[in-house]
Amino acid sequence: MYIYPENLKAKPMxxxxxxxxxxxxxxxxxxxxxxxxxxxxxxxxxxxxxxAFLSIRVEDNSVLGFLCFAARFLxxxxxxxxxxxxxxxxxxxxxx
Length: 96
Description:
The protein is mainly α. It is built from 4 helices and 5 strands. The chain is elongated.
């Protein structure tokens, strides 16, 4: 089922993928089936299925995008925290 984007601003989707991703997945599966018939190796087919999983989009978020943000937050960027004591007016009066 083809659903055109709302207000013609979003990218067109087909099920859970953008149309560009559907074309890439279809061509990758076709090439991997040919490679499987010639060489007997499942490597390209596994790669096509992995790409299909990583390119699933729900509400403009993809699995690959989520993994990239998680890796950036947890591993790649330095986290900076600044700790402060909460403001207490009674403490200020006693110090003065």
